[in-house]
Design a protein that fits this description.
By secondary structure, this protein is mainly α. 87% of the residues lie in helices and 0% in strands.
Length: 92
């Protein structure tokens, strides 16, 4: 196994950790942005596994996976930003 392959496997494991943590945020703390983060990192896992396992996923599908993942993360970050902004306004 090449060092780059090893790093890719470590990256997938870390992505899994983020996805699980995001699911906990979504379910235990009832934060909507947790779902967006979980979706994003689940799609990253799918993308990376497609590359590692050399799955026959077309380039268009890879691009679509990344586009949806980025959109999901953008929406999640926007929800997090709005929550923080509302907290700041309520303190004034």
């Amino acid at each position: 196994m090449y060092f780059s392959d090893f790093l890719q496997v470590i990256a997938v494991l870390l992505e899994m950790g983020v996805a699980v943590t995001a699911l906990l945020i979504a379910t235990r703390y009832r934060k909507s942005y947790g779902w967006c983060i979980a979706v994003t990192f689940s799609l990253f896992i799918l993308f990376d596994l497609g590359r590692i396992c050399v799955l026959p996923i077309p380039d268009t599908a890879h691009s679509l996976i990344l586009l949806i993942a980025c959109g999901s993360m953008l929406y999640g970050v926007w929800m997090l930003y709005r929550e923080q902004a509302l907290l700041q306004l309520s303190k004034k």
